[in-house]
Design a protein that fits this description.
Blueprint: E1 3-7, E2 10-17, E3 22-26, H1 40-45, E4 49-53, H2 70-83, E5 89-94, H3 96-107, E6 112-118, H4 134-149, H5 152-162, H6 171-182, H7 187-195, H8 200-205, E7 213-218, H9 227-237, E8 241-246, H10 253-256, H11 258-274
Parallel strand pairs: 3-4, 3-5, 5-6, 6-7, 7-8
Antiparallel strand pairs: 1-2, 2-4
Length: about 280
């Protein structure tokens, strides 16, 4: 069931399932909380209360926000944690929201138990000429095209590119529903504002994250010239960081390979509980 939380400038939509320690899931740009649909049941079955939130301007959240930065989303996530009774909560952020999870952990370490960064858009990727290939070049071209033209058609082409190989049985239906949602008035404006926002603040926060942090990267993620190297670099920057690379996955391992992604997160949570 969709619920709403009022924050400065509008309302954020979310849904909550299960009982136990809180895990908050937040998707990336141009997506909606249903991206985590296959992860929520196993997290709940493992004894967690799971809240899945929509970014500003996405899903069922309001459009019309004046600002769309990673810091804004960090504040929204912390507001949601407090609204749901307080932390410490595990924050799971994909792409853009991965940077927000890092910022939230630095801003309020008592309220964040751990963070998970999936396909992290936490910093500007390190680009080495020798690593640039067709997958990265095509992906970046489609992202730029969708941003500059605010085109859902080009964004759908990017999504096709970012989900290489095997997909979940309901993938086509979800992408169709997502594309229709992104076509609503104001949503591609929010999309473009987030795409154009700087990751500098969240990149600088990585070395200051005071809680356990897991980086989950798809081996075929088109957003990075060398996804494996990016995952390793990010994990090394995080004081308590580790990385998991999921073979055959693109930019959306939580939606493309939810079983493997969930298993990696549950291993992190178990180690934290056993510590």
């Amino acid at each position: 069931m969709t619920e709403y939380l009022s924050v400065e400038g509008g309302r954020i939509s979310y849904e909550v399932t299960g009982e136990g320690p809180l895990v908050v899931l937040c998707h990336g740009i141009g997506d909606r909380r249903q991206a985590f649909r296959h992860m929520i049941p196993p997290l709940v079955a493992a004894g967690h209360r799971v809240a899945a939130a929509d970014l500003r301007g996405h899903g069922e959240s309001d459009t019309g926000f004046a600002s769309h930065t990673r810091a804004d989303t960090a504040a929204d996530l912390l507001a949601l944690v407090r609204h749901l009774g307080g932390g410490p909560a595990v924050l799971v952020g994909h792409s853009f929201a991965a940077g927000s999870a890092a910022l939230a952990a630095v801003a309020a370490p008592a309220e964040v138990a751990a963070i998970v960064q999936i396909g992290p858009g936490t910093r500007a990727p390190v680009i080495r000429l020798r690593d640039i290939g067709w997958r990265f070049t095509k992906g970046i071209a489609l992202i730029f095209g969708a941003t500059l033209l605010r085109s859902t058609r080009i964004w759908r082409r990017y999504l096709d590119h970012a989900y290489p190989g095997a997909r979940q049985a309901d993938h086509a239906a979800e992408i169709a529903a997502l594309t229709a949602k992104m076509g609503e008035k104001g949503r591609m404006h929010a999309f473009a504002q987030m795409m154009l926002s700087s990751p500098a603040e969240s990149g600088a926060a990585l070395s200051k994250v005071p809680v356990p942090a897991l980086v989950v990267m798809g081996a075929l993620d088109p957003d990075f010239p060398d996804p494996r190297a990016e995952a390793a670099d990010l994990a090394a920057l995080l004081p308590q960081g580790e990385a998991v690379v999921i073979e055959g996955s693109g930019h959306y391992p939580h939606a493309q390979h939810p079983q493997e992604t969930t298993a990696a997160i549950l291993r992190l949570l178990k180690r934290r509980a056993d510590a």
